[in-house]
Amino acid sequence: WVQEEAPDVLCLQETKCAAAAVPAELRELPGLPHQFWSSAKDRPGYSGVGLLARTQPLDVTYGIGEWPKNGQNRPKNGAKFPSLFVVCAYVPNAGRGLARLEPRLRFDAAFLRFLRALDARKPVLLCGDLNVAHGEIDLCHPKANRASAGFTPQEREGFTKLLDSGFVDSFRHLYPEARGAFTFWTYLGAARARNVGWRLDYAVVSRRLLGALCDCKIRNGVQGSDHCPITALLAV
Q1: Which positions fall inside the Endonuclease/exonuclease/phosphatase domain (predicted)?
Q2: 129 given a catalytic annotation
Q3: Distance (Å, whole) CA 149 – CA 98
Q4: What is the pTM of this model?
């Protein structure tokens, strides 16, 4: 599928694989020779992300500087290209019973500061599993999940603050009324076959990139995970 899609940049989250153990079929993907992998230092593969690029980035950074201090949840790779930053993010989950909600909210605030600092230098494309369904339209059963991780008022407000800071949810901008447009389905209860899902994966762009935004597609026919890929198309 990756070879057919032929992306200029491929962002992967929750790789569950330390950099040294990345399989050969990924290392040798045609057209994506520049690869940057990272995960928590003390737990190889934990919260892992990978950014693969067709052309060599001008610079690549890891983490968001101020968070976290202990290296437990290192969520992003950031690549600087001539016309924009591409940030690959795997945002922390609030956890079962919302046990990690407060750390998640602290992360959201720190991440927003980081993105705003990048945006002050150059436009940003943020890709990844952001672990939040922003609106009721973004999950199948909103009423039953108001106290569930990924749909609490606090997490949704965090995403609203991101949008209010000069960023745009590209899919919802292009398809404001699209229903059943999900990117995650639990493995339980044949949820994917019944399309009982959540939209947790995003391509968020700096508002000034809207003129370059051509499309954002949810590739829900692609199997192999409890998430499906999304594709952002920009003329930059």
Answers
A1: 1-227
A2: yes
A3: 6
A4: 0.94
